[in-house]
Amino acid sequence: MGVRRGALIVLEGVDRAGKTTQCKRLVQALRDSGKEAEMMRFPDRTTMIGQLISSYLEKKSNLEDHTGFSLEWCQNPDVGLPKPDLVMFLQVNPAEVAGRGGFGDERYETSVFQRAVQQKFEQLIKDPSVNWKVIDAARSIEDVHTEIKTLSENAINIAENQPIGELWK
Ligand code: ADP
């Protein structure tokens, strides 16, 4: 019998959509049901490059911003990476969630920038080669969690018997 693989599950969304909250809940729920699960976050601020990005985001250093580049240019570094088995986009109105604890002081934590990010996501979601699911994340933490857990369990069952895909190839 071959070794069954795990699933790569991604939570996406603008700042304060609830990614961290939901990811922690999901990992805990999967572990409680006897599955191994691990949370990863990007950028990983513990690596050398991550520290550079972190200091830039915290406005402690300046780098050239590159925000004028196209979506395709931004996608390029990720082409060919392991394709997620499921990407759940936590859909919220950026203006509404600005009230969730308020934006911090980091670069890009502004409503104007978050609206632009939301629009780029809407373009990416149209790509049928990636298994996107749009989640209404304006509901309670519990309701959002229930949906995310069900979708994740399905994705885990399907991924077991499938090869790992390559992103955007
Ligand atoms: P992200 O990781 O997407 O930036 P967080 O999970 O850190 O978002 O959540 C941002 C803030 O919003 C936190 O204070 C969190 O407790 C709160 N929050 C998360 N989900 C909800 C929700 N469904 N309803 C209300 N508040 C929420």
UniProtKB/TrEMBL annotation:
<keyword id="KW-0808">Transferase</keyword>
<feature type="domain" description="Thymidylate kinase-like">
    <location>
        <begin position="68"/>
        <end position="148"/>
    </location>
</feature>
<dbReference type="GO" id="GO:0004550">
    <property type="term" value="F:nucleoside diphosphate kinase activity"/>
</dbReference>
<dbReference type="InterPro" id="IPR027417">
    <property type="entry name" value="P-loop_NTPase"/>
</dbReference>
<dbReference type="GO" id="GO:0006233">
    <property type="term" value="P:dTDP biosynthetic process"/>
</dbReference>
<dbReference type="InterPro" id="IPR039430">
    <property type="entry name" value="Thymidylate_kin-like_dom"/>
</dbReference>
<feature type="domain" description="Thymidylate kinase-like">
    <location>
        <begin position="11"/>
        <end position="67"/>
    </location>
</feature>
<dbReference type="GO" id="GO:0005634">
    <property type="term" value="C:nucleus"/>
</dbReference>
<dbReference type="GO" id="GO:0006235">
    <property type="term" value="P:dTTP biosynthetic process"/>
</dbReference>
<protein>
    <submittedName>
        <fullName>Thymidylate kinase isoform X3</fullName>
    </submittedName>
</protein>
<dbReference type="GO" id="GO:0005739">
    <property type="term" value="C:mitochondrion"/>
</dbReference>
<dbReference type="GO" id="GO:0005829">
    <property type="term" value="C:cytosol"/>
</dbReference>
<dbReference type="GO" id="GO:0004798">
    <property type="term" value="F:dTMP kinase activity"/>
</dbReference>
<comment type="similarity">
    <text>Belongs to the thymidylate kinase family.</text>
</comment>
<dbReference type="Pfam" id="PF02223">
    <property type="entry name" value="Thymidylate_kin"/>
</dbReference>
<dbReference type="GO" id="GO:0006227">
    <property type="term" value="P:dUDP biosynthetic process"/>
</dbReference>
<keyword id="KW-0418">Kinase</keyword>
